[in-house]
Amino acid sequence: MSTETTKKPSVLFVCVHNAGRSQMAAAFLTTLGNGEIEVRSAGSQPAHKVNPAAVEAMAELGIDMSAEIPKVLTTEAVKESDVVITMGCGDECPYFPGKRYDDWVLEDPAGQGVDAVRPIRDEIKTRVEGLIASLVPASK
Predict the structure, then answer these.
(1) Separation between Cα atoms, residue 91 and residue 137, nearest integer Å
(2) Which of 36, 53, 75, 129 is least surrounded by Cβ atoms within 10 Å, i.e. has the fewest?
(3) pTM of the prediction?
């Protein structure tokens, strides 16, 4: 019996407040990744709570983010991640050679209502689906 273990790829989503974009991306990856990818999110200046409009927009798709709490970005979180996706705070994210860094330019949902958050949410979902395809080989 083989005891070989394959390490799951890990992704860290980072935005300034860890209250909207990075939380939605992490929720999509957790939901759509089927447990194949380790998911983290953090902010360089975390807010006190997740953006209620982001929570509402995700709930419309059956994804509950209401219990999430913004987390502070740590050097350890970056070190432990294979892929680091920044969303407007790339200059504040520690850099380590050998990691994949992507910057997703997305509108900031802070202070906007759910009508303005929906297109941001949908763009994040599309990008997360592409990220999953690049990290997890398709099973035939």
Answers:
(1) 31
(2) 75
(3) 0.91
Q: Is 11 helix (H, G, I), strand (E, B) or coil?
A: strand
Phi-psi sector, 18: left (phi>0), alpha (psi -120 to 50), beta: left
Q: What percentage of the chain reaches a pLDDT higher than 90? A: 81
Contacts of 11 (CB under 8 A, 6+ apart): 29, 37, 38, 39, 40, 81, 82, 83, 84, 85, 131, 135
Q: For helices 52-59 and 114-135, what crossing angle results, to 10°?
A: 70
Neighbours of 86 (CB within 10 A): 23
**50: pLDDT strictly greater than 80:** yes
The predicted model gives 48-67 an average pLDDT of: 97
